[in-house]
Amino acid sequence: MAIPIILDCDPGHDDALAIMLAAADPRLDLLAITTVAGNTTLDKATLNARRVCTIAGISGVPVAAGCDAPLAGELRIADDIHGASGLDGPEFGEPAVPLAGEHAVALTRRLLLDHPEPVTLVPTGPLTNIATLLRDHPEVAPRIREIVLMGGSTGRGNITPYGEFNIFVDPEAADLVLRSGLPVTVVGLNVTHQALVTPEVVTRFRALDTPLAEACVQLMTFFASTYDRVFGLPGPPLHDPIAVARVAEPALVRCVPAPVAIELTGVHTRGATVVDLHHRTGTPDNALVATGLDVAPFWDLVVGAVAALPGAAG
Fold first, then answer.
1. Which Pfam family, an example, fits this chain (predicted)?
2. Catalytic annotation, pick one of 13, 82, 193, 239
3. From CA 23, how far away is CA 306, in angstroms rounded?
């Protein structure tokens, strides 16, 4: 039986591929796509989610807009990486996929309470929506199978020396989620940087020879140009689909149990994920932490998803 999931995202180039994988993999039942401010503003992220669903031929999945700012402080976006639209590269027409008529948190609550089995939440942006849900609606906790998030790192950051972007944008939300007592898996930069979009990967997309694949080529080419300019990397890491892959095929993403805390007050380290891999603090484990990725099968999964979607036929 397919695993019911809700994808909470902030598209974002890597979120776009996460949406495609979540919709295409037959082992997953994508109940909804919810959006949050992060890589770009909420309005743009929501428009981008609808654009991705339109070009990929994803229908029947509600798209709902959520929180437009973090729980505390000002929103910081990543337009230096994702461009002014949050999804620069292809030319998009008007989306054919409508916006759901309820807030993302309300939609998520309703789906959790109505679904016959517990649902997996897959947040690939700041955790504002998820934290708001858990804070305001504690009754849903038993209806959550697990939370598999993209965020954090066992080492260095990418927005500050020790802060990964998703956690840094809303560390208070991340702190609430990590202290929730729910099963949480953290897929961080230490693993996502194992999945670089190399020229060989782009060639695989291009070889599909479909309009959707060409859009992916344009997305990844723009993404590569900003990562080269900002970080000097030979290819951009495809962060977010790895969280989706962990749910669809857990063996692809190797994890270990560990205590994870969020730094909230450090002058230089606010937003850091403090991962006690060696259990030196005596703190109980509260998460599974991703440590490795089977890279070749992961790319087979992502390229196969783009090939399988209805939009791939034109």
1. IU_nuc_hydro
2. 239
3. 10
